[in-house]
Amino acid sequence: MSKYIFVTGGVTSSLGKGIISSSLGKLLKARGYKVAIQKFDPYINVDPGTLNPYEHGECYVTEDGAETDLDLGHYERFLDEPTSQANNVTTGRVYQTVINKERQGDYLGKTVQVVPHITDEIQRRMRLLATENDYDIVITEIGGTVGDIESQPYLEAIRQLRWKLGSSDTISIHLTLIPYLKASEELKTKPTQHSVKELLENGIQPDVLVCRTEKHLTKEIRRKLALFCNVNINAVIESIDVPSIYEVPIRMMEENLDKIVLSKLKLNAGSRPDMTRWKDFLEKMKHPHEEVEIALVGKYVELPDAYKSIHESFIHAGTVNQVKVKLNYIHSESLNARNIKSKLKGMHGILVAPGFGHRGVDGKLEAVRFARESRIPFFGICLGMQIGVIEFARNVLGLKEANSTEMDELTPYPVIDLMEEQKSITVKGGTMRLGAYSCRLDKKSRAYGIYGKEMIRERHRHRYEFNNDFLELFEKNGMKAAGVNPDSNLVEIMEIPDHPWYVGVQFHPELKSTVMHPHPLFVHFVKAAILQKERNTEDSQKVASVS
Ligand code: GLN
Q1: pTM higher than 0.70, yes or no?
Q2: Among 47, 81, 64, residue whose Cα is nearest residue 512
Q3: How far is the CA of 447 from the centre of ligand 1 (A)?
Q4: What's the half-sphere exposure (Cβ side, CA atoms, 13 Å) at 32?
Q5: Residue nearest to atom 8 of ligand 1 (CA)
């Protein structure tokens, strides 16, 4: 019999429900429980795959090819366990299921309504992970903020589930903000009181309050919150601002969040969670030996959430190497042949990011050219690899009009082209090459040395591919296919062996980097950046001694 934890948010969005859920999941797992986390998003898109990254940040892709909310990335990075389509549900998906059933006649004769049909479908999905796997605990995070019109069916579903299953099998955690008013030098509890009232109006009494705050909660504030929100004083949990999200599990452990949750669920608290490896990671992260600078060239840089997994992968990889990676977000539209040198000066590595459409492509081409010619470590991810291929075709192979058919359908040299099976597809949702595919590495490649094995599996999200008609020409001139899909022969990795570190990957390695298992490509790219820094220092010393 599984137990259910529901996490809602109040007062404002962006309080970090995903991090709190992940941290709690991590602690419960460390106490020996089998835990799953899922996210319910109240928007009407069937999945976030068709959303612009400016809307909700990066679209995270699971092994089974689901396009999901970026919080699933946190779940995987913290818990070190893969998620799937079942871990992310949207209102659109819920309605789609109910409407399809209605068309099939499943509700024949009945009026189909939000209550009970939509709320029943939400409850079915809330329990799906647990019914299909034997999880001890399923944490369900509800997107948005209590009080939103869109959240109401979810709150009603939680209320009904709690009523059906009882209070020791389900608990409600409410994440809220305790603002600090500078003028009166006080923490304020009123917004939380209102938010809890809103929850109560929906029939949900929170069991635990997790309070985001920039100042420590005094005993008095905790007492006030407990009294007015009707929770135990030890269930008022402080979640103070910390410099890194990876500190949150430790803070939550210090506040006994896991213990309180387990006692409310009438589960054995067992021994203290073993967080030794996690703490070692934190120690290393906080004490880097040096800093390397990496440029992330992309077009959604105004919103760093658009590159969330890449950002986190660098934290993991930097920590392993005991360096701090200073990630410089550079807008590809701001780059051109004249300013490229000054804009990328001092970078020890250049990463060209994934993306869609032609905006900013010229700047990305300049960035790759600069990295290739100046022999600075280069890492191209998805579109970043495709840009590497186009740049090589234009500037090394002399095919000046080479392009991807995504940018120029009529290019005479379509070095990146639509896959055959993509050509007839017109609908946009969920139709890309998605999810994990195998790749066989060439034993002579850099990638093979990095992964240390021949067969790998990585996650994809793209429509276009390297055009194998050009492969021979590329290989003859120094750019090699280091990994190909064994079934379809599609090129997955391109390398320039005669370069200190030039790796372009068609897949998204950032989606598989976790705290406990940093991704080898990121780890080695950071290593290459450290070597580049050493080379720069040697060069400047030589210049100094000559002059
Ligand atoms: N736009 C490219 C494609 O569809 C690359 C996608 C990506 O970078 N995720 O193939």
Answers
A1: yes
A2: 81
A3: 21
A4: 6
A5: 354
